[in-house]
Specification:
This protein is of the alpha/beta class and 524 residues long. It contains 19 helices and 16 strands. The chain has a domain at 354-524: Isoleucyl-tRNA Synthetase, Domain 1 (Orthogonal Bundle), CATH 1.10.730.10. Bound molecules: ligand ME8.
Length: 524
């Protein structure tokens, strides 16, 4: 069975999950569900990043220990993901013993390979981004160039990783594998970065300043730089490295039977350098293969500004969910943002996307089920079901192509287009006129059976993005589960018993909807 290992970033346990975190995690979930349905053995990883200055300071501000804060926030993220129907296979926390041991083993390995030296760091540090910036990057205003937050001048002893040694090799890798980083604009950004001199990477901090981290195996007065610690999570969860084994047999150079390398790292463009430069050079230094692909998506912005906790303009995904339901939120996020580009969050656009679900997909389901009820006593007629065949094929092809090329918005647009076409088909065939003419019964049978077949296909196409509603839709046409796409397209729908219920997507502004909290809240 082909396998697929995909990851999201592990989010800082210093703040609540917001719409940006939800976006990446839902994107991962939609891809994971799509691949599972394609018969692949998927490992979908997410988690929380729990060490470093940011967590240490957030805990102190709230009068909590870092451990208590991380436990609380890891619980909040897990509850958010349950409420948003995330089907991750593993939730990693960087404070887990297993992860701490893998980080130590990897650092030892880098040191054994002669890639670590002691030095002094003098530079500008942003706690918000947990990274140093150059004088040029912070500009005359001296603010972090990602989120505009403060930076502090630091001079201290650090250990360094000889990242510069791998510059040429990484540059060649990026040039030779044009789809390694998608979209292309992000790849070009990395190429630009790699064509300038690449420095070495500071990999530790003095414990006197930051105590909340993993101590270096050879110098307990220093803790591991949080980004090195965090990136290694992807290897920890893969099982490629066994820290307990003797030094030569831990899995470096020849990874143990495991899920490594990852097939896909999903990230936001804010952490591109960390993933496309620091991470691959660290892997090269340790003798581990590189991930197969990095997809750096854009930002959700509010009035041109990145949505971020430090800017105080975040949208709470769970609030939106309680007004419109989980699947509507998932649909909005996936359909509205062209994968890779920025998108602006506005309540108006949310409503526009919701109305596609209710006025096109929901309306189609309602019409088809009630016509089969009215004209054929609730049982899908037999005989040919060839209406909309070409449209279905076109939609399925475009959908698959969108997913395979990581242009999910296009794939999902194709699915909605099929629902729109099917509504047009109802208008063209006018089943209400056919029903009045006994001589045209076969035509009516074919019309209704074709429409039921399209509904089954739509349930398949919508399943990765709207798993709950897709199951409901399949249920309305008498199926206990959502079939696989290939089964649906050529399925014999004769005899399926349809059942009418409340609208699947109640119209926004109607007395019964949109559904306030119909999905039920799962508490942390
Ligand atoms: O960076 N739009 O964690 P983090 C879209 N712990 N996506 C957004 C977003 C926005 N406005 N805001 C956040 C960290 N994200 C590190 C990661 S990985 C080894 C360590 C998403 O909590 C996006 O995926 O700041 C972004 O890369 C991530 O959340 C940053 O989450």
């Amino acid at each position: 069975m082909p396998s697929f290992y995909l990851t999201t970033p592990i989010y800082y346990a210093s703040g609540e999950p917001h719409l940006g975190h939800a976006y990446t995690t839902i994107l991962g979930d939609v891809l994971a569900r799509y691949r599972r349905r394609a018969g692949e053995d998927v490992l979908f990883l997410t988690g929380t990043d729990e060490h470093g200055q940011k967590i240490q300071e957030a805990a102190a501000e709230q009068g909590m220990t870092p451990t208590a804060l991380c436990d609380l926030m890891a619980g909040r993220f897990q509850a958010a993901w349950r409420n948003l129907a995330i089907s991750h296979d593993r939730f990693i926390r960087t404070t887990e013993d297993e992860h701490r041991a893998v980080v130590s083993a990897l650092l030892e390995r880098l040191r054994d390979n002669g890639l670590v030296y002691e030095g002094e760091y003098a530079g500008w540090y942003s706690v918000g981004q947990e990274r140093y910036f150059t004088e040029k990057e912070i500009g005359p205003e001296r603010v972090d160039p990602v989120a505009g937050g403060p930076v502090e001048r630091i001079r201290e002893k650090n250990y360094f990783f000889r990242m510069s040694q791998f510059q040429e090799r990484l540059l060649r890798h990026v040039e030779a594998n044009p789809d390694w980083i998608v979209p292309a604009a992000r790849k070009n950004e990395v190429l630009g970065f790699l064509r300038r001199p690449l420095g070495d990477l500071s990999i530790s901090r003095p414990r006197s300043r930051i105590h909340w981290g993993i101590p270096l195996p050879w110098d307990a007065d220093q803790v591991t730089y949080v980004w090195v610690d965090a990136l290694v999570n992807y290897v920890t969860a893969s099982g490629a490295v066994s820290p307990e084994a003797p030094a030569g047999e831990r899995g470096f150079d020849s990874p143990l039977a495991s899920r490594w390398p990852a097939d896909l790292h999903l990230i936001g463009k804010d952490i591109l350098t960390n993933h496309a430069v620091y991470w691959p050079t660290l892997l090269m230094g340790a003798g581990l293969p590189l991930p197969r692909k990095i997809l750096a998506h854009g930002w959700w912005v509010v009035e041109e500004t990145k949505m971020s906790k430090s800017l105080g303009n975040v949208v709470d995904p769970l609030e939106l969910r309680s007004s419109f339901g989980t699947d509507a939120l998932r649909w909005y996020l996936m359909r509205e943002m062209p994968t890779g580009q920025d998108a602006s969050y506005t309540p108006d656009r949310f409503l526009v996307r919701y109305e596609e679900l209710s006025n096109i997909l929901g309306n189609l389901a309602h019409r088809v089920v009630s016509m089969v009820g009215r004209y054929r006593a609730g049982t899908t007629p037999g005989g040919p079901a060839d209406g909309l065949r070409a449209e279905t094929e076109r939609a399925v092809d475009a959908y698959r192509e969108g997913f395979e090329r990581y242009r999910l918005h296009e794939g999902l647009a194709a699915a909605m287009e099929l629902a729109r076409r099917a509504n047009g088909f109802v208008e063209e065939r006018e089943p209400w006129l056919l029903a009045r003419d006994p001589g045209r019964a076969a035509e009516l049978d074919e019309t209704l059976a074709s429409l039921v077949r399209v509904l089954v296909t739509l349930a398949c196409l919508f399943e990765p993005v709207a798993p709950g509603k897709a199951l409901e839709l399949a249920g309305r046409v008498g199926m206990e589960r959502v079939p696989l796409l290939d089964e649906a397209v050529c399925m014999n729908v004769a005899g399926l018993a349809v059942s009418q219920g409340a609208p699947i997507f109640p119209r926004a502004g109607s007395p019964g909807g949109p559904p306030g909290g119909t999905d039920g809240e799962i508490a942390a």
